[in-house]
Amino acid sequence: MRNARIVLAVMAGLMFAGGCAPPERPAEPFWNQELLLRIYLDGLMMIHPELTLDYRLNTPADQQQILDDIERNKQLARRRRLSEPLMPPELMERLERLMVRRLQDYHRRRECQPTRAEVEQYYEDHPEEFRRDTSAKGTPTPTESRVPLEQVARSIEIRLFRERVEEQKAVFLERAMAEHDVEILVAEDLIEAPPPDSPVYRIDGRTVTYEDILNTHSNVYGDRASVEFFQALMKRALQDELLFLSPEADQLRQSREYQFLHEAFEAQWKVLLFLRQEYERNPITEEELRQYYEEHREQLYPAPAETKLIVVSLPKSPEPGPGSADSATEARSARESLEHIHRDFVASASPGAFSFAAYRDTPGLQVTRLEEWTPVHRLGRLIEMDIAGRKPGETSPILASQSAFLFYHLLDRREGGYLPFEEVRPGIELSLRQARMREIRAEFQAD
After folding, report:
1. How many CA atoms, within 13 angstroms, populate the side-chain half-sphere of residue 127?
2. Integer Cα distance of 274 and 440 in angstroms
3. Is residue 292 within 8 Å of residue 428, measured between CB atoms?
4. What is the DSSP letter of 3?
5. Inside any domain, residue 251
């Protein structure tokens, strides 16, 4: 089994080798309301993604609305004695990781923020980093030869902050790795990312696969088949895992921020299950869904006329001139070239599969195959006016815009109207179900 030093080698480059002890944590954790509510909204995405649609977090009033809603959930859970069933263990574990990771990151950032005195001291201790080019001014004074502190204070603050974060993170990781059995299960010289079910590392006998990492870090995007993406994500996941297991994380689980979030998620889960049970006693009927569709069809579900087509165009002049005779000559030449292509296209046995390879040397020729349904109003006024009355399989004559000649071949079309009921049915059902659940909750809270 590989030891912790190998793990540190794998993670080299992510952090500095830490040698300093982290700053002491404040005796009383800092209560940051907006931070807690942001973590809460992220957690609702795990409990039920639709829940976050009702919330905003832009103003103090928005924050107060969420706090009031959390309190209402707690009251409803107590009054209705909603104690069972408990939140599934796998969901609770994901929420716990979210809470610990975000609170850890916040406290670390808060502790590592340099003071104004430290910024000024760095500025005085590193004068060579802030020298100004004064060669054209003769002999400058010491003050003139340096960039003013106010112009570089922010960059110094950022530099000190980043160094401290990495140093503190390294110390935390060293502590966690000293207390846990860590083993890397993939080769260091990978040439491609492993399959999702491949074991990646083992911590205290628990094996973690690539799929586990992807699920835990679902907000990280990239090419999953890329070995670079895999290695970066593996290092990040192992780092997060060790930080999650660190003594600092245990302290956070005792904090009032953590308790606030834990109680809020637990109450939300209980109320959600309660509302679902009450809803199932009187669910939305098919008749109600269709009635909603008919009443809101014109406002909510219009469908524009759509088409599939091939558009072929040539600019009137590759480099338009100021209206000279040369420009007119170029325009006639472009039209003649497009007329030749148009004749060959119309005469072909299968215009829909026509190849333009023989004309690839024609300057400015552009062929656009719109083989997905495209709203007619997005095709430009010229085509929109000409396409009326044309049938699938027809080819337009050559049309002239201000800057180009073009023609199009109509592959298919469908008239405008309304989105079909079956296509919008899931959205209607979701909207009505959420409205019904809000009514149920209001009814029981009013009792």
Report:
1. 6
2. 10
3. yes
4. -
5. yes
Helix (H) or strand (E) holding 407: strand 404-414
Say if residue 313 is in the same domain as residue 294: no
Whole-prediction pTM: 0.59
**In angstroms, rounded to a whole number, what is the distance separating the alpha carbons of residues 351 and 34?**
60
User: Can you list the pairs that 342-347 forms with residues at least 24 positions away whose Cβ atoms lie under 8 Å?
Assistant: 342/312, 342/395, 342/397, 342/398, 342/407, 345/312, 345/395, 345/407, 345/409, 346/395
Cite the DSSP H helix spans in 113-209: 116-125, 149-179
* Residue 273, domain member (yes or no): no
* CA pair distance 66, 36, nearest whole angstrom: 11
Question: Tens of pLDDT along 47-67?
Answer: 887 777 678 888 889 999 999
SS3 226: coil
Tally the domains of the chain.
Answer: 3
What is residue 53's predicted lDDT score, i.e. its pLDDT? 66
Q: Which is nearest to 55 in space by CA: 71, 38, 74, 75?
A: 38
Q: Are residues 253 and 360 in the same domain?
A: no
Q: Does residue 5 carry a pLDDT above 50?
A: no
Q: What is the radius of gyration, based on Cα positions, of the chain? A: 33
Alpha-carbon span 321 to 332, nearest angstrom: 14
| Structural domain harbouring 50 | 4-180+245-268
Phi-psi label, residue 361: left if phi above 0, alpha if psi -120 to 50, beta otherwise? alpha
- What sign results for the dihedral spanned by CA atoms 275, 276, 278, 279? positive
**87 vs 71 pLDDT, higher one:** 71
pLDDT digits (tens, 9 = 90+) for 134-184: 555 555 555 557 889 999 999 999 999 999 988 887 887 777 778 888 899
DSSP letter, residue 107: H
Say if residue 42 is in the same domain as residue 93.
yes
- For residues 267 and 66, give the distance between their C-alpha atoms in angstroms, rounded to a whole number: 13
Please write the tens of the pLDDT for every residue from 381-412: 999 999 988 999 999 999 999 899 999 999 99
What are the phi and psi torsion angles at 313 (to 5°)? -140, 155
CB-CB contact of 107 with 172 (8 Å): no
- Fill in the DSSP letter of residue 395: B
Band the pLDDT of 258: cuts 50, 70, 90: very high
Residues 114 and 168 in one domain: yes
